[in-house]
Amino acid sequence: MSLWLFTPTGEAARSTSLLYHAFGIRHCHHKATQFVNGAVRFRVEVDRAKVRCPICDGQSITRRGVITRQGVVTRVIRSQPVARRRTEIQVQVKVQVQRVWCNDCCKTRQCKLLFARDHMQHTTAFARYVIDLAFITMTQNVARHSGVA
Q1: What are 26-54's pLDDT values in tens digits?
Q2: What tens digit of pLDDT does each residue of 122-144 get?
Q3: % of the chain beyond a pLDDT of 70
Q4: Largest pairwise CA distance in the chain
Q5: Strands in the chain per DSSP E
Q6: Would you call 66 exposed, middle or buried from its count of C-beta atoms within 10 A (0-12, 13-18, 19+)?
Q7: Rounded to whole angstroms, how far apart are CA atoms 55 and 102?
């Protein structure tokens, strides 16, 4: 099942555009949408042309590992929820993070995701959402509402 966003002219936009405009997920291609335990999970793939060295930002890289072996780590990252009447639907982004060898700085590291910081389990858009909520209500209510307690 795929989600579609309709433009004002009535044309259907791709789900990749929805991910960018609604959730701030850049330089990724939408691969699939799943509904898991009341949450929407988008499976995305990082655009290979945008992969760079996370240390020196060099383009001269070699991919290490393949999907079936060590070298590609799958991360499930939380994004801001989508409102639906009185309840909200949780949104998750599942992405495979490639390890790369940089020919310039001679280091092997995981690629950086532009929409989530290293070792964080949420997107930067989700962090902004929680901070915005903190300005209008108590911290305990924000934690209960966002499910990060």
Answers
A1: 778 888 888 888 788 888 888 777 788 88
A2: 888 888 888 888 899 888 888 88
A3: 81
A4: 52
A5: 5-6, 12-13, 28-36, 39-46, 61-64, 72-84, 87-102, 108-110
A6: exposed
A7: 9
Dihedral of CA atoms 142, 148, 73, 63 in degrees, nearest 10, equals 30
Pairing of strands 28-36, 39-46: antiparallel
- Residue 49 phi/psi, 5° resolution? -70, -20
> Residue 63 is encoded by which pair of tokens?
């991919």
Using only the alpha carbons of the chain, give its radius of gyration.
17
Encoded tokens for 16: 């990749």
Whether 51 and 100 have beta carbons less than 8 Å apart is answered as yes
